[in-house]
Amino acid sequence: MEENSCNVPTSVGFSVPARVSRETKPDATYVNVAGVRVGGPEVIVIAGPCAVENQEQLFETARSVKKGGASILRGGAFKPRSSPYSFQGLGEEGLKLLSSVRSETGLPLVTEVMDTRLVAMVGEYADMLQVGSRNMQNYPLLKEVGMTRKPILLKRGMMASIEEFLLAAEYILNQGNDQVILCERGIRTFETSTRNTLDLSAIPMLKRLTHLPVIVDPSHGTGLRWMVPAMAKAALAAGADGLIIEVHYKPEDALCDGYQSLDLYEFATLMTDLNKIAQAVGREITLPVS
Ligand code: PEP
Ligand code: MN
Questions:
Q1: Are 206 and 217 in contact (CB under 8 A)?
Q2: Quick check: CB of 196 below 6 Å from ligand 1?
Q3: Which of 112, 138, 154, 256 to mutate to test the pocket of ligand 1 (most atoms within 8 A of CB)?
Q4: Are 132 and 80 in contact (CB under 8 A)?
Q5: Is the pTM value of this prediction over 0.90?
Q6: pLDDT tens across 88-120, in order?
Q7: Residue 107 Cα distances to 36, 76, 117, 193, 208, angstroms
Q8: First to last CA, the chain
């Protein structure tokens, strides 16, 4: 084990898997999401509703987040809900709505795929496939998305260590797909005042250990609308390559995660502040396609 002059171990105590390791590949990997580059000197903001609910909700939200400066649109069509009685998403109908809002706005889409049997179908609509927190250790799914040539947004398992997170990414790279973005979205701890504990120390740690881009989800990371701006700003200050933020045109009516979704005005205000933080750390937020 490496040691510094005070005999404090400086190694992380595990070996970083080969393909994701920065030792193997010192240069940053750029992930290309339908023309939007992630992992470069610039930072990107992904925004949109937790779930696609209907045309009005999706289009109003998408137009507004684009105006605010988001360059990629999020929206779930297949939702992993804790209760089987909660809204499960619109399925393929939701993917069709996403595809039509992309035609209008030009924003690339990220949407979740939960099932190996649906990878091909979701891949026909999405510009980037999301593997959610609950599926970070679904190894057949990791292999299946690794066999596509789509960018993958891999969210950290809510009970996953950094080592397990990197190993999950390694599964995808092992199939020949290096277009992987890592997303810190909060982990479960003893703390109950927030939905999860957003582990911002994961940002510098991951940036040191791997060449893959690292983004942060302050919405699931806190579960509290009022706390999202503070943690979004902190994430950029700590070196994140981007953010994924839940935004809803009427959060109080949302079918999923309304309590952690920013309204349109809150998102626009946050973007103004994020531009200042980005500038302070020598970066710029990528503008949406015109
Ligand atoms: C989501 O982004 O909609 C989501 C379900 O996130 P997570 O997998 O991080 O809970
Ligand atoms: Mn959500």
A1: no
A2: no
A3: 112
A4: yes
A5: yes
A6: 999 999 999 999 999 999 999 999 999 999 999
A7: 9, 15, 26, 35, 30
A8: 51
